[in-house]
Amino acid sequence: MRTVIVGAGLVGLTTAASLRLIGHEVIVLEHAPQVRAAGAGIALWPNALRELDTLGVGDDVRRMGKTVDAWFFDAAGHPMRAAGYDPAVHQLLMVPRPDLNNLLADTFGRDRIRLGTHVTGFTEYDTHVEVHLADGAPLRADLLIGADGVYSDVRAALEPGSTAVKHAGNYAWRAVLPSGDERPEGTFVTIGPARTRGGYTRVTQGRTMWWVAQFDAGELVGSKRDRALRRARNVAESGWHDELLEMIAATPEESILENQIMLVPELRRWTTDRVALIGDAAHGLSPHIAAGGTLGIEDAGVLRAELASGSATAASLARYESARRVRFEQVREHSAAVEHANGAAESAERYAAFTHWMITTTPTT
Ligand SMILES: Cc1cc2nc3c(=O)[nH]c(=O)nc-3n(C[C@H](O)[C@H](O)[C@H](O)COP(=O)(O)OP(=O)(O)OC[C@H]3O[C@@H](n4cnc5c(N)ncnc54)[C@H](O)[C@@H]3O)c2cc1C
């Protein structure tokens, strides 16, 4: 089976390695000149590590990251945690995102990744699919996977009118710095007033990520550092988070990532007989539940299992879509519940309910 995957992000690379494992001849097309070299840290949950174990890299990823024991705090620094859950519900693995993507690229095989290749759409036939490129002749494939993120061109061709929309007012700022004398256990997340949240955590030995986010962020003025600092002051009441302010103030402007959060609208379909969307291309959500990457890696595991089942490709894709859509209906409900939680205690409660659900209902692949 000749499979073309669009996008060398976290999900595209995992999918590529997963489908190679079941004998597909896979090519990845990526429009950037290199596999993602920038980025902060990403939180991974056990469901993601399970698929990475299947690929033989789970332990490498565990070694590259840092396990974080997650607490919620109010703006005055009072720790909160939902009671009655297994400790695993409060533990996630922080990993430096560029290191993870590079490991996945090496695992899949860099000689099969075509960089600087922009995909503009596709035409599907009974016998094959033609992948259209901005430069050069179309590529012929038996299967096309759109792993090209929230702004997916594959999705635009599959479902015209499905452009990602701004999650109004929802912004995030992040950076990774050499670790200093801040608390090594980090502060995971403080819920401040005005729908702001933020904190810092080690992402690997010697490197710390700070982050700040706000729903209803209002007008953005000044430098990225000014914008992040203004929100961080909400999570630093009573001196509780002075080191967060110090870290942001010391971060070079060019090292700060600022994201307007985008949402992928609910789609009529994720697949056709020979084309499938995966990861953020299918279901990009607000990152306040820190699970988009994990859920995209889960997608890859389900797709691999369905395509390995021996059924016709169209039937396998249909089963993949129906399993993942059911899961995402529930993810959207949890995401909204966490977004609209009132204060730190309720946020901790709703987030634990989400992570408990997510890790105890992992799809069997
Ligand atoms: C601020 C923030 C914090 C987050 N924190 C977490 C977290 O802690 N944990 C977590 O699990 N998730 C987190 N997420 C979500 C997570 O980043 C995404 O769910 C994940 O990166 C999706 O991966 P992907 O491979 O589907 O898409 P992407 O990472 O967006 O990759 C898409 C790739 O496709 C390429 N591409 C796009 N269009 C084309 C084209 N036409 N032709 C060729 N190539 C193309 C792009 O260059 C890119 O390399 C966060 C997101 C944000 C914004």
CATH architecture of the largest domain: 3-Layer(bba) Sandwich
CATH class of the largest domain: Alpha Beta
Query: What proportion strand?
Result: 25-35%
How does the overall form come out from the CA principal axes? globular
CATH-assigned homologous superfamily of the largest domain? FAD/NAD(P)-binding domain
CATH fold-level topology of the largest domain: FAD/NAD(P)-binding domain
Number of domains: 2
Q: Kindly name the structural category.
A: alpha/beta
Mean pLDDT: 95
- How many beta-strand segments? 18
Distance between the termini: 20 Å
Total of helices: 11
Question: Largest sheet, described in full?
Answer: 7 strands, mixed
Report Rg: 20 Å
Task: Give a written overview of the molecule.
This protein is of the alpha/beta class. The protein folds into 2 domains: 2-41 and 99-164 and 264-360, FAD/NAD(P)-binding domain (3-Layer(bba) Sandwich), CATH 3.50.50.60; 165-262, D-Amino Acid Oxidase, Chain A, domain 2, CATH 3.30.9.30. The chain contains 11 helices and 18 strands. The strands form 4 sheets. Strands 6-5-14-15-16-13-17 form a 7-stranded mixed beta sheet, with helices on both faces. Strand 1, helix 1 (10-21) and strand 2 form a beta-alpha-beta unit. The chain starts with a strand and ends in a 5-residue tail after the last helix. The model has no long low-confidence stretch (mean pLDDT 95). Flavin-adenine dinucleotide (FAD) binds at residues 6-12, 29-32, 36, 42-43, 118-119, 147-149, 153, 172, 174, 259, 279-281, 287, 290-294, 296.
